Amino acid sequence: MMKLAVNYSKEAHQLVEDAVIEVDMFKCPDFSKELIENAEKTKPCYVHFALNVGDKQMNNVDWDAIETLKQQTQTPLINVHAVAFAKDYPDMDVFTNNSADRNKIIGAAIADLEPVIERFGAENVVMENVVCRGKNENMIKAIIEPEILTEIVKETGCGFLLDTAHAQMTSKCLGFDVKRYLSQFPLDYLKELHITGIQSDEKGRLRDSMPMTEDDWDLAKWVIDGIKAGYWQEPWVAAFEYGGVGPKFEWRSEETVLIRQVPFLRGLL
């Protein structure tokens, strides 16, 4: 049975400690051992790593530090984000359909996955879908296409991490039907699930880690129902990615949202 996690924040920590909300674990960032140790006084933790595949940065990773964090917490899987940053492909159109371009992107992701898999084993690695916003943005569309993600997963044997907010943002930006788009992902290899709301900022740009809206709940329920019906593999955890720590996230860690939405998500699970 999949566990329920919530992004670690001071607000979430206090609400769990006071038994106002109930979760199985905290999902913690990888940049603060002190934060993790503090969180573990109240609930088990697992770590979400800031690792990308496809941008040729694996030589800069401190693998011993990652292994230590994995062993010291209840983190069963090493997560990576599948990326194809436009800056790394300056001569490539964001919407390229050229087979050579697509093969280059696939090859870069697989090459970056190799050292992760060699160290931890393919069965202990999951690859997450990211956001593509289209022209003049930072991500080449090929890397968010279901057939390419599926090819990488099947070629390497790693698992898949589905982020519903990323799929929803991509779909709204590129004009996809989100359920049709998402259902083509390699969900037979699903091992982890991230759920959170998306909303527009003051400039109309979509962002995630926000409170859930009716559309967000509809998509989350559809995915969870699909998992329960056995259409897709059941992940080990569903993480509610609302709020967090640091300047980027702490302003959107409202107790009232957590009190209302965490129990609702637990009910769906």
Automatic annotation (TrEMBL):
It comes from the Bacteria. This is DUF692 family protein. SUPFAM superfamilies: Xylose isomerase-like. It comes from Gracilibacillus oryzae.
